[in-house]
Amino acid sequence: MEQEPNPFKHVTFMDTNCAAKAGMVTVAGGAMGFLMALFMNAVEMRDMDYGRTKQSTRYVLRRDINKMFGMAKGFAIFGAFYSIFECQLEKLRIRDDATNSFLSCMFSSMVLAAESVGWKGLMMSGLGGGMFGGVMYYVQIKFMNH
Predict the structure, then answer these.
(1) For the chain, how far is it from start to end, CA to CA, in angstroms?
(2) CA distance 94 to 109
(3) Are 130 and 96 in contact (CB under 8 A)?
(4) What is the value of pTM for the model shown?
(5) Rounded distance, CA 128 to CA 131, Å?
(6) Membrane-spanning regions, if any (predicted)?
(7) How far out from the chain centre does Cα 77 lie?
(8) Pick from 11, 16, 88, 104: most CB atoms within 10 A?
(9) Are 21 and 29 in contact (CB under 8 A)?
């Protein structure tokens, strides 16, 4: 009598623990946002004030660091919401597919846009975020299969 293969053979701790996954994604998202902001500030064209160099340098550095931490915070928060929503949807639907990615990105975008836009903007934000999630799911599948 042949034994059936175990479908949960390759399940890891991060696959079953939503809190651990969300924590890791939050830290990684914050780091990615900080590095992206660092790059964007490096290539940004800006006007230089050549008088009182020490004060203007201090002002520019303070402004740039605030921008970098702001972008890092945004990436970290989006990653946390996305990870939590996706993990819960996977457990609810008992499958991992593009619909989970679409809905997770949609919900994350809507939560982050909730206090800054009206209901039409909220719907557009959710639709744009959902389409981004669906595209990223298919890109991930394409690259993982090769």
Answers:
(1) 35
(2) 23
(3) no
(4) 0.77
(5) 5
(6) 20-43, 64-85, 117-139
(7) 7
(8) 104
(9) no
CA 128/CA 105 separation, integer angstroms: 9
Q: Residue 54: CB partners within 8 Å, gap ≥ 6?
A: none
Is the Cα dihedral 98, 104, 107, 113 positive or negative?
Answer: negative
Encoded tokens for 62: 């303070």
What is the DSSP annotation of the chain?
-PPPPPTTTT--HHHH-HHHHHHHHHHHHHHHHHHHHHHHHHS-------SSHHHHHHHHHHHHHHHHHHHHHHHHHHHHHHHHHHHHHHHHHTS-SHHHHHHHHHHHHHHHHTTTS-HHHHHHHHHHHHHHHHHHHHHHHHHH--
pLDDT tens-digit map of 40-71: 888 877 766 666 666 677 888 888 899 999 99
Return d(Cα 60, Cα 76) in angstroms, integer.
24
Percent of the chain clearing pLDDT 90 (strictly above): 47
